[in-house]
Amino acid sequence: MEELALVLKKLGKMEAQMNELSNIIKADRKTELNVKEAAAFLGVAPKTVHNYLASRRLFGFKRGKFRYFYKSELEVFKSNFNQ
Questions:
Q1: DSSP secondary structure code for residue 56 in this structure
Q2: pLDDT class for 61, splitting at 50, 70, 90?
Q3: What residues contact 69, with CB distance under 8 A and at least 6 apart?
Q4: Is 41:27 a contact under the CB 8 Å cutoff?
Q5: Disulfide engineering: 41 pairs with which of 14, 21, 27, 65, CB 3.0-4.6 Å?
Q6: Tally of structural domains, the chain
Q7: Is the distance from CB of 29 to CB of 66 less than 8 angstroms?
Q8: What is the CATH number of the domain that holds 57?
Q9: Rounded-to-integer distance, Cα 40 and Cα 43, Å
Q10: How much is the average pLDDT of 40-46?
Q11: Sign of the CA dihedral with 12 first, then 48, 66, and 24 last
Q12: C-beta of residue 67 within 8 angstroms of C-beta of residue 53
């Protein structure tokens, strides 16, 4: 029973990693990214992207009730942020 619980726990971790990789792959193919995809592209948590927005370090645009970012602007932000 303990072995099953351990296997299930490892599978859960693997699923989370697969989802993160999926977001990175999606972000690589698109020119407009949502918050989750932008976070994956920048290598930060979605909450951090929201904090960047609130502090006006990063700008995006709204489509309906969702926030989006141009990948080209995120690339500039990322290069400036790493300096």
A1: T
A2: very high
A3: 32, 33, 34, 35, 38, 58, 59, 60, 61
A4: yes
A5: 27
A6: 1
A7: no
A8: 1.10.1660
A9: 5
A10: 92
A11: negative
A12: yes
